[in-house]
């Protein structure tokens, strides 16, 4: 179905597209159309009649709704919010009705507040969540010749008023509009309405009939050839499919990913592991990757925001030739919700706090997703916000047109026993917990910390932790709280600090937790996702890595597949000469550390090496000082050399072998 003033024309795929002209002539190439009263000249790509020749018209793409920013010159995709950037320009926050933070770099969801000191979005209902980073707004396209506030005419035509009071387009530049409001004549002539002629000193010509004004038309563009027989539409890129045929990536000069199924914008690299396009200009940013074009003739499309569906070419065309750019911080954990007076009953024996959603666990028991009207994922362990879908493969929450976000882990539901005399639900007694006071407890491997701003106890998810004076955070044993940087420091080490969770009261709000601890022996265990390693004292310590390698010094550990190099203080991989910094045990005693190069707050490389990005969130160490990190985020070259993908090496005067930089 096409809008009023358009004409339905068949597409090459057999569906229908919309020509933005009334009563138009559909061209036989199924891609273009011409004005009423003209014919398609396929050889010259024109619309012709007896007297004139005009550029033909491409089928109009479905227009993407946009939010116009206050400067009236910038716009953001639908379901986003305009926020001012530090340089005074406008950016787009990737959510509707968002809160723009005062630093002009971040934004928060509706109903939350920006906590600049802790780089968080805070809410009394949902607790803290990470900041969202804005992306640049698009410049609004300049209008073509305006007949009035709602009508435009193509280039090389003239706006003339019609009998109806609306405007039409005379198919010639600088034309003379005749007084009958129906005809027009070439520049330098006069209208002879009696004889229906255009008069001039050199003779006369036939009058031209005006055509109704239309919306802005894109200029005719050339196709992008893939080979001698296959081509993609202008503004797209040819990419090979798994079968060896050609497909069209809906971005100009795009990067074709090695999986032959995805593509990324220019100047980005494909991160197959994370499913993103990583922006080399801003290593903290990543872009959700785009799948190959899908035909939109049935008005169902998968075009991301900041692109439009091109029905004629069956592609998604980038509006600003850069494609959508999003930066979404990872959500690692959420603060537990305070149990309010009213609860949501999952069944007769289980309930969840108000503001949460009941979801089943794999065991068949009930759990609580920490948000209203949430979507329960099929793995029966996670959940996503309302309006999102669970992507089990990527372990994220996805929503068309918006960046993906990490999914949420459900909390075990409250178990209700027979009501007591005061009609308060009695919950299961705490098992293997230690008490903060007579009525409040924390899990066995947590530390009780008093939350001064709330006036009650909280649980730091670390054993024997240091409680920070701000009342909201804590650090591992042996570390100090750095209030200015919101981090934990120990000698040369600096790690992000931990957010405390609210402690649970024994009577009336006890939550049953699943036992997924890693057993060290019959009496000692480490939290899930860690590895038991012996300390120099003979006691057990917890390495914060899954299936880690415990080093012989009983103080450090390395990732799975690496070996401990105690001489250089690194983790080395047998199949590679690369190394990464040793990972400190949580209960490591204070020792002198050699000088290191800071990659970020929690990652280091030896001074003799160079930090290089593996993705937007991980680092590796190149075994050269002041090395050159290659754009593919997999390799590096010595100083003075450059990365040469054509020879798969480092080139200067001669070719040198490069080093695999993958972990």
TrEMBL record:
Keywords tagged on the record: Disulfide bond, Secreted
Gene Ontology CC: extracellular region
- Any Pfam family from its record, for instance, is Granulin
Q: Write down the superkingdom of origin.
A: Eukaryota
**Main location per the UniProt record:** secreted
Q: Where is the Granulins domain?
A: 101-114, 178-191, 257-270, 296-309, 377-390, 468-481, 551-564, 630-643
Name recorded for this polypeptide: Granulin
Q: Name the InterPro entries on file.
A: Granulin, Granulin_fam, Granulin_sf
Tell me the protein family, please. Answer: Belongs to the granulin family.
Tell me the organism's taxonomic lineage: Eukaryota, Metazoa, Chordata, Craniata, Vertebrata
Q: Where does this polypeptide localize?
A: Secreted
């Amino acid at each position: 179905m096409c809008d009023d003033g358009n004409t339905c024309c068949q597409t090459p795929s057999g569906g229908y597209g919309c020509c933005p002209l009334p009563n138009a002539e559909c061209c036989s190439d199924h891609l273009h159309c011409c004005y009423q009263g003209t014919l398609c000249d396929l050889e010259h790509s024109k619309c012709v009649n007896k007297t004139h020749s005009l550029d033909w018209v491409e089928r109009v793409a479905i227009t993407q709704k946009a939010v116009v920013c206050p400067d009236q010159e910038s716009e953001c995709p639908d379901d986003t919010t305009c926020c001012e950037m530090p340089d005074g320009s406008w950016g787009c926050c990737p959510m509707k009705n968002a809160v723009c933070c005062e630093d002009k770099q971040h934004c928060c969801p509706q109903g939350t507040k920006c906590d600049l000191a802790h780089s968080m979005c805070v809410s009394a209902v949902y607790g803290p969540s990470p900041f969202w980073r804005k992306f640049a707004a698009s410049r609004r396209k300049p209008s073509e010749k305006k007949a009035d506030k709602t009508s435009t005419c193509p280039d090389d035509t003239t706006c003339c008023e019609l009998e109806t009071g609306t405007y039409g387009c005379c198919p010639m530049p600088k034309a003379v509009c005749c007084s009958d409001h129906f005809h027009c004549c070439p520049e330098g002539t006069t209208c002879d309405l009696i004889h229906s002629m255009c008069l001039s000193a050199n003779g006369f010509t036939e009058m031209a009939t005006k055509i109704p004004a239309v919306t802005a038309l894109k200029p005719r563009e050339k196709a992008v050839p893939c080979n001698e027989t296959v081509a993609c539409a202008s503004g797209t890129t040819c990419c090979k499919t798994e079968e060896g045929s050609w497909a069209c990536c809906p971005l100009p000069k795009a990067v074709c990913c090695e999986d032959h199924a995805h593509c990324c914008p220019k100047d980005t690299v494909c991160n197959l592991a994370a499913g993103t396009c990583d922006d080399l200009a801003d290593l903290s940013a990543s872009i959700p990757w785009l799948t190959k074009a899908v035909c939109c003739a049935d008005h169902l499309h998968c075009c991301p925001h900041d692109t439009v569906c091109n029905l004629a070419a069956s592609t998604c065309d980038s509006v600003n030739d850069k494609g959508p750019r999003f930066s979404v911080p990872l959500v690692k954990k959420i603060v537990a919700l305070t149990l309010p007076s009213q609860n949501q009953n999952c069944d007769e024996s289980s309930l969840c706090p108000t503001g949460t959603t009941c979801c089943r666990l794999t065991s068949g028991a009930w759990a609580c997703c920490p948000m209203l009207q949430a979507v329960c994922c099929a793995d029966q362990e996670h959940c996503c916000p309302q309006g999102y879908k669970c992507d089990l493969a990527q372990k994220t929450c996805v929503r068309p047109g918006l960046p993906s976000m990490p999914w949420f882990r459900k909390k075990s539901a409250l178990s209700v026993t027979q009501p007591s005399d005061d009609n308060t639900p009695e919950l299961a007694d705490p098992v293997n917990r230690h008490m903060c006071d007579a009525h409040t407890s924390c899990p066995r491997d947590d530390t009780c910390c008093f939350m001064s701003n709330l006036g009650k106890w909280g649980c730091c998810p670390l054993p024997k932790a240091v409680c920070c004076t701000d009342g909201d955070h804590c650090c591992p044993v042996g570390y100090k709280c750095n209030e200015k940087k919101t981090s934990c420091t120990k000698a040369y080490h600096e790690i992000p600090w931990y957010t405390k969770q609210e402690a649970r009261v024994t009577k009336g709000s006890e939550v049953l937790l699943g036992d997924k601890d890693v057993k060290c022996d019959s009496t000692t265990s480490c939290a899930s996702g860690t590895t038991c390693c012996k300390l120099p004292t003979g006691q057990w310590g917890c390495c914060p890595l899954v299936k880690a390698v415990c080093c012989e010094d009983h103080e450090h550990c390395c990732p799975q597949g690496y070996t401990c190099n105690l001489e250089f203080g690194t983790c080395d991989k047998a199949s590679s000469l690369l190394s990464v910094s040793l990972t400190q045990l949580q209960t490591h005693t204070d020792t002198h550390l050699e000088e290191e190069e800071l990659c970020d707050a929690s990652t280091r490389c030896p001074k003799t090496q160079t930090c290089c990005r593996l993705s937007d969130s991980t680092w590796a160490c190149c075994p050269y000082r002041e090395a050159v990190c290659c754009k593919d985020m997999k390799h590096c070259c010595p100083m003075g050399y450059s990365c040469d993908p054509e020879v798969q090496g480092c080139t200067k005067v001669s070719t040198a072998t490069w080093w695999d930089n993958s972990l």
